[in-house]
Write a structure and sequence with these properties.
The complex is a heterodimer of chains A (483) and B (185).
Chain A lengths: L28 H13 L5 H27 L14 H12 L1 H12 L5 H26 L25 H34 L3 H10 L7 H34 L11 H27 L8 H31 L3 H12 L3 H16 L4 H4 L2 H28 L14 H24 L5 H6 L29
Chain B lengths: L8 E8 L2 H14 L4 E4 L7 H5 L6 H27 L12 H27 L23 E6 L7 H9 L6 E5 L5
Antiparallel strand pairs in B: 1-3, 1-4, 2-3
Classes of the chains: A mainly alpha (483), B alpha+beta (185).
């Protein structure tokens, strides 16, 4: 199984004859339960957590101050100008929605693909998805100008007997992001109920017992319940799979259906989805690495998990790089002077600095993951994740701002600069995101215990021999194994 | 001693500490012909549905129905709102055309299916139900952690305190424990 010479927590060897052990350190059901639930129930709140949440909550306060200021003064407090009517708010929206793709990809698509390693990280990634979508949802909501009529976005009868225009991609966005947020939340909560029941049954304090008791809905591990639960999980995963791919496609329609050079391209949906997965995985890694370190989860969230994530980052990063090249090729090959100008302008115009930050971070950096040494080196990969996060924010900046600032008519050109309100609002959204992450790791089970148990050899009811890979949701043949 | 001396008794439980032991025991309980009984495990054990003889669930049908409702609603809503009640004339485009309405049709199909899936599952499972007689057993708290349980309810037509206790004891579990409808204190 694991090599006796090297680090016992290293399971990244490539030996196709042996399945990889996903839970290391000779864990059994009892010790896995204890490891994960003690973080919430027993461990004293670390000082660092208080300092962390103090800091992030202050940033969240800044976010709300900035939003309040915006509401009082109007969108003129942002750096928007005449050609560039979409600035940081839209950039941040697309950035955060993109981040929100990793969770449901891990929980739904990897589930459909029977990737068992997802069990160690899915809870965390799903939580992060929901928090990122919350951050994303704020930006278009506060961008509408007259926030008191923001409900016109929804098909609600109003005094003007007016309905929204369903042929507008901006409205598709409302439905796409709203559905995605709702389904991700249901999926996350449903997956968490058995673990909340575990917390309820281990809790010693009265308040903990009541809170986790209510949240766990009276789950008692009945197999008649598990039977429907697993069916529901499979169905939700099947429903969420096309949903994940649809969200960023719809977000890309906001751009692609416009006539603007640099936006009006059919490559946008797949290119946006690849970029979203790329940035989402990087963000999961950014937060997961400190969490597994500080909370001693290295035996459940193993190096193998991280290496797999890095492979996904390599694949999607290469797709993103390929898409950049394709865009350029089509701009030249298409023969439209406005289109080719838009791309030359991106790379060599006034925003060249942003373009080359984007290319360095998104195209060059992930290619280093071809090397196993880099793929399995934790400090190095963490730095790479930071680069990817930066690069993907700049990608959205480049797409949004360069096209708007110089379109068809040179007399209408202008350079866009953010104001301090733009910057503080974005910084504040990080505060909100990190505050929610900190609350999550303190009060909810960070690892899907019930799911991790199913991939442990001990979970297999049918054979005495140790199977290194168990099953989740039944791919043992119906008649198989039973003696 | 008599067969009906089951006053406040909910049922009998027995505990196992390995999934393979549990599986063998479950098959015996099924073959014995009990009806009101259940297995409680910290995670879904594979092959248990067959071992217990659980039939398929109606859930997928409900989800399909709900998804079709979502699709129909989305189509009707977009047609009525944009082509009938408040005709939107934009760039000479048709008032109602499928391609521009596909995204919202898709989203509402998925949304309503997901609702049916989530809420339907809990309703079919009879949850939330915050009180259950089994919660009075301290031992049973490990059902969500690291132990496996078989519970036979006193309501089962084949239940007989003496004989069922002996039967459960013969399955090789750790203990056989009586569970009452409510806590004694």
């Amino acid at each position: 199984m694991k090599s006796s010479v090297t680090d016992p927590l290293c399971n990244t060897h490539d030996d196709p004859t042996k399945p990889v052990e996903l839970v290391l350190d000779d864990h059994d059901l009892t010790s896995v339960t204890k490891l994960v639930s003690d973080i919430v129930l027993e461990r004293k709140t670390p000082l660092a957590w208080w300092l962390g949440i103090g800091f992030t909550a202050s940033l969240t306060g800044i976010l709300f101050l900035m939003i309040g200021y915006l509401f009082i003064k109007g969108v003129g407090v942002w750096g928007l100008n005449n050609p560039v009517s979409w600035g940081w708010a839209i950039v941040n929206f697309v950035f955060w929605v993109g981040i929100g793709h990793a969770g449901t990809l891990i929980s739904a698509i990897l589930f459909m693909l029977r990737q068992k390693w997802r069990t160690g990280i899915n809870r965390f990634a799903e939580a992060m998805t929901i928090f990122a979508v919350i951050c994303a949802g704020i930006f278009p909501g506060i961008h509408v100008g007259r926030v008191w009529v923001v409900w016109w976005l929804f098909p609600i009868p109003n005094y003007q007997s007016m309905w929204p225009n369903f042929r507008s991609p901006l409205l598709w966005d409302v439905f796409a992001v709203g559905t995605y947020a709702t389904v991700s939340l249901l999926f996350w909560y449903m997956g968490m109920v058995p673990d909340l029941a575990t917390l309820r049954d281990r809790a010693k304090g009265r308040i903990q017992q009541i809170v986790y008791g209510v949240l766990s809905l009276g789950w008692n591990g009945s197999h008649r319940h598990w039977h429907r639960y697993e069916k529901a999980y499979l169905l939700l995963a099947g429903l969420a799979t096309p949903l994940v791919l649809s969200v960023h496609s719809v977000v890309s329609f906001d751009f692609a259906t416009a006539q603007l050079p640099g936006w009006h391209t059919t490559i946008f949906p797949p290119y946006f989805v690849a970029g979203a997965v790329f940035s989402g995985f990087a963000m999961v890694g950014t937060i997961l690495i400190p969490a597994r370190q500080w909370f001693g989860l290295k035996s459940i969230i193993t190096l193998h998990h991280l290496e797999n994530m890095n492979k996904v980052i390599l694949a999607t990063g290469s797709m993103v790089g390929f898409a950049y090249a394709t865009e350029f090729f089509i701009a030249w090959y298409g023969g439209n002077p406005n289109e080719s100008f838009a791309f030359v302008n991106r790379a060599f115009g006034p925003y060249a600095w942003a373009y080359w930050i984007m290319v360095t971070c998104n195209v060059v950096t992930p290619q280093l993951f071809w090397f196993k040494k880099i793929r399995t080196n934790i400090p190095v990969m963490w730095i790479m994740y930071i680069f990817v996060n930066i690069g993907m924010w700049f990608e959205r900046f480049v797409i949004t701002v360069t096209s708007l600032s110089r379109d068809f008519l040179p007399s209408a050109w202008d350079y866009y600069n953010p104001t301090i309100v733009d910057i503080l609002t974005f910084v504040g959204s990080w505060g909100l995101f990190l505050t929610l992450v900190l609350l999550f790791i303190r009060f909810l089970p960070m690892v899907a215990m019930a799911e991790v148990k199913t991939v442990m050899p001990i979970a297999d009811a049918h054979s005495g021999e140790r199977r290194s890979v168990g099953d989740y949701h039944g791919d043992i043949p119906r008649d198989g194994g039973a003696k | 001693m008599s067969a009906n001396a089951t006053g406040g008794l909910y049922g009998l439980l027995t505990e196992f500490d390995s999934a393979s032991q549990l599986m063998k025991a479950v098959e015996k309980v099924r073959d014995e012909g009990f009806q009101k009984w259940d297995v409680h495990t910290p995670f879904p054990v594979h092959g248990m549905d067959e071992a217990m003889g659980i039939r398929g669930t109606r859930l997928p049908f409900l989800v399909l129905l709900s998804g079709a409702t979502g699709l129909g609603l989305a189509t009707l809503m977009q047609w009525w709102m944009n082509a009938v009640d408040y005709p939107f004339i934009i760039s000479g485009k048709p008032l109602f055309g499928i391609p521009a309405n596909v995204p919202i049709m898709f989203e509402l199909t998925v949304l309503l299916s997901a609702f049916a899936c989530f809420f339907g599952m809990w309703i079919l499972n009879g949850l939330p139900r915050w009180y259950h007689p089994l919660f009075t057993s301290r031992r049973f708290r490990r059902a969500t952690q690291d132990r496996y349980f078989i519970v036979i309810e006193a309501q089962d037509p084949k239940f007989n305190l003496e004989r069922t206790r002996d039967f459960l004891a013969s399955l090789g579990g750790a203990v056989v424990e009586e569970v009452n409808e409510s806590a004694e204190d």
